[in-house]
């Protein structure tokens, strides 16, 4: 008995030492050693991250992880996915269970400053809206006084919701369910009058999960700003740089008109110094990031540029136009920091 | 060492080595070393965690508890709004956990006892039905049962607009059940006080009746008298309070039913799920408790001419209680702990509120430490109470 106690105490000490050693190593080194990027994604939000019929993960959020893997390994498929609910996501990142969280996550002060996280870019500018059955005959969010609202816990959504109703002097009854399938089931069964989340999420729920999408409308009011983007843990600046620039490269490729299709041609023939720098024809950028010079070439070749990723995932699956997410040159907000 | 063991008190010849060879000294030494190692390991884990959190720039501490929570909670037994602080939010969650656990414990005991007795019934159909009930609900994971009830309730009942009204003022809808409740009035405070007084009076009457029965053998109709005292006093208080009759009736207004008392589908799903699941275990505990009482007890009661139903109540059940209380305590603890699954169907229990808190503040370790200690506290309280009850029921050897 006593011996066992001593052994247990010893084992605990060893475990603690091991934990500390793991902490000391850089995330990027860990990723290189294990050979893949562990990517935290949504449990299933078509267009952003969802497993397709063959079990392959797809979506605009998934593409950020694939871009990071392409940059590090030259192989966009060197990614493993961890589906996470809104309430689980930050703990998974803080504890090192995942390397990137790319899961329609809003950048906020608290998350950035208090949770030990770093937002490395915004891959989707969004805002919160309301989805409601047509049959209720509601045409504006200002008519929602007294409504029952389905919402997911641990989101900015539930905070904006309380703020909005408080500011408008209206009341509501929340039904808070963590799992998106349970939550949407509650909404479709009539447990709630309204479902609220990011407008993109509403589009996804309406077009992909409703039996008859035409029975539901998204109200015109957008009640918040939701800049969604990939997040990494603080502590490894080299790794956050890789993810930041992997995403920036996708946007810059679109700005230069470099696509999956023409990237080889561009690499061989383009005389534009910006494109030459991006694709590693004139070296330096890869070295700066501690990556192969073909890092951005691999991203565009295997994942595509931002516009292609958007088109393939968001427009094709959810029917959403570029809107705020158009390039700045087209009047949108997507504006890549220059790769130079 | 070839020297013989030192006799106690023989101080002179004791060297250090002898000391270490002394069984008693060694025993103490081992304990000290073991405890020292544990403390060291504990201190190491804590300081290591703090160090790592600091390295990762994750803030620590319980200061977040008095920040504004900013989220709404659907069911609250105390005053709460999005402007309240996190501590109040956690309190709301705790009370919701206690509410559903307490009700669950009471209901599962009643239902479990009925099915436990039914499993021993001499009636074939009753016995088989009870067996089917127990075997079915005991062998389906409780989480699935919660999902089942939660899927069933909203889809089994109509939208509030077409609410069912089985009794006047009672509405059944996909948003739960609505009951009419009296409008708040001073009379109800008076009635509560009267109820407490009634309980005290009943306690003393019972004591007196028992004494009299012990002395004279004369039984006293305690149940009737008790009901009489209780109803009489409470009724008197109601009349003295001016006999208010205003009721808050649930009725459709806007999106939802307003007024009355709402029992939400989330609460119902959790309560029914936990009660049904745990009642099957209680039934088994009751059955084995009864079977643990030797048959001779039945026969002895029989030979004294005691009716079977009275023998069950007065002879058998009290004895089986002694066998049943410890495993019953386990079931109550299980039910309380299983109530943490409520989060899956959106009932705002302690875990649900803690989860949200931990996510909005990022204080995962703190929030988890809070709810773990609360569950530990709840479990210890339940155990303490049941231990006391067990002592009280235990056979007093004469
Ligand atoms: N952008 C918001 C909300 C993100 C969010 O979790 N949205 C829900 C509703 S669309 C969701 O993705 N749920 C899917 C899941 O839980 O797997 C945030 O970062 O807090």
From TrEMBL, chain A:
Database matches in InterPro entries: Bact_solute-bind_prot3, SBP_3_CS, Solute-binding_3/MltF_N
Protein name per its UniProtKB record: Amino acid ABC transporter substrate-binding protein
Keyword Transport applies: yes
Residues covered by the Solute-binding protein family 3/N-terminal domain: 36-266
CDD domains named in the record: PBP2_BztA
Keyword match Transport: yes
Coiled coil ranges: none
Signal peptide: 1-24
Annotated family: Belongs to the bacterial solute-binding protein 3 family.
Keywords in alphabetical order: Signal, Transport
Pfam annotation, one family: SBP_bac_3
GO aspect biological process, one term: amino acid transport
């Amino acid at each position: 008995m006593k011996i066992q106690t001593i052994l247990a105490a010893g084992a605990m000490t060893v475990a603690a030492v091991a934990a500390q050693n793991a902490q000391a190593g850089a995330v990027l080194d860990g990723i290189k050693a294990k050979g893949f990027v562990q990517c935290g994604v949504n449990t299933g939000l078509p267009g952003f991250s969802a497993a397709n019929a063959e079990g392959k993960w797809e979506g605009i959020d998934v593409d950020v992880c694939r871009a990071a893997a392409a940059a590090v390994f030259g192989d966009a498929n060197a990614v493993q996915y961890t589906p996470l609910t809104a309430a689980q996501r930050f703990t998974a990142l803080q504890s090192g269970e995942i390397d990137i969280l790319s899961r329609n996550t809003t950048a906020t002060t608290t998350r950035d400053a208090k949770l030990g996280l770093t937002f490395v870019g915004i891959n989707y500018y969004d805002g919160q809206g309301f989805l409601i059955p047509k049959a209720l005959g509601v045409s504006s969010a200002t008519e929602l006084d007294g409504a029952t609202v389905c919402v997911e816990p641990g989101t900015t959504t539930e905070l904006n919701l309380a703020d909005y109703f408080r500011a408008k002097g209206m009341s509501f009854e929340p039904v808070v369910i963590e799992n998106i399938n349970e939550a949407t089931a509650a909404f479709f069964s009539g447990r709630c009058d309204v479902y609220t989340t990011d407008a993109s999420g509403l589009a996804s729920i309406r077009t992909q999960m409703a039996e008859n999408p035409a029975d539901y409308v998204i109200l015109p009011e957008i009640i918040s700003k939701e800049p969604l983007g990939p997040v990494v843990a603080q502590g490894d600046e080299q790794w956050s740089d890789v993810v930041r620039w992997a995403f920036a490269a996708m946007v810059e490729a679109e700005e230069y008109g470099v696509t999956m299709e023409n990237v080889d041609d561009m690499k061989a023939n383009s005389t534009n110094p910006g494109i030459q720098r991006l694709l590693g024809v004139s070296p330096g950028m890869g070295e700066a990031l501690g990556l192969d010079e073909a890092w951005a070439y691999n991203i565009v070749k295997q994942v595509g540029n931002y516009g292609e990723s958007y088109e393939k995932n968001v427009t094709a699956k959810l029917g959403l136009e570029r809107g705020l997410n158009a390039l700045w040159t087209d009047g949108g907000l997507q504006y890549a920091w220059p790769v130079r | 060492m070839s020297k013989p063991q030192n006799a106690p008190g023989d101080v002179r010849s004791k060297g250090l080595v002898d000391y270490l060879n002394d069984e008693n000294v060694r025993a103490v030494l081992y304990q000290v070393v073991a405890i020292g190692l544990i403390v060291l390991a504990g201190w190491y884990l804590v300081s290591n965690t703090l160090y790592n959190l600091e390295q990762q720039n994750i803030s620590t501490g319980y200061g977040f508890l008095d920040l504004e929570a900013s989220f709404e909670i659907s069911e609250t037994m105390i005053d709460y709004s999005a402007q309240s602080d996190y501590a109040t939010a956690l309190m709301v969650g705790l009370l919701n956990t206690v509410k559903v656990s307490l009700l669950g414990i009471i209901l599962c005991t009643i239902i479990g006892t009925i099915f436990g007795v039914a499993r021993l019934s001499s009636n074939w159909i009753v016995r088989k039905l009870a067996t089917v009930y127990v075997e079915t609900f005991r062998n389906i994971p409780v989480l699935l049962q919660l999902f089942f009830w939660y899927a069933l309730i909203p889809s089994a009942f109509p939208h509030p607009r077409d609410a069912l009204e089985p009794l006047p003022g009672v509405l059944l809808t996909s948003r739960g059940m609505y009951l009419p409740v009296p409008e708040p009035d001073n009379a109800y405070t008076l009635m509560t006080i009267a109820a407490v007084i009634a309980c005290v009076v009943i306690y003393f009457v019972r004591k007196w009746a028992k004494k009299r029965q012990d002395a004279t053998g004369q039984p006293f109709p305690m149940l009737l008298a008790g009901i009489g005292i209780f109803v009489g006093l409470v009724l008197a208080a109601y009349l003295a309070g001016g006999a208010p009759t205003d009721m808050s009736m649930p009725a459709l207004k806007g999106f939802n039913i307003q007024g009355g008392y709402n029992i939400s589908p989330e609460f119902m799903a959790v309560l029914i799920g936990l009660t049904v699941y745990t009642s099957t275990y209680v039934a088994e505990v009751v059955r084995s408790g009864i079977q643990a009482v030797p048959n001779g007890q039945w026969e002895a009661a029989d030979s004294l001419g005691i009716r079977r139903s009275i023998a069950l109540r007065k002879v058998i059940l009290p004895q089986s209680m002694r066998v049943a209380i410890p495993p019953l305590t386990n079931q109550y603890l299980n039910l309380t702990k299983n109530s943490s699954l409520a989060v899956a169907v959106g009932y705002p229990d302690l875990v649900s509120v803690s989860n949200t808190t931990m996510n909005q503040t990022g204080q995962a370790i703190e929030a988890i430490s809070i709810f773990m200690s609360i569950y530990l506290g709840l479990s210890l309280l339940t155990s303490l109470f049941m231990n006391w009850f067990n002592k009280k029921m235990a056979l007093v050897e004469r």
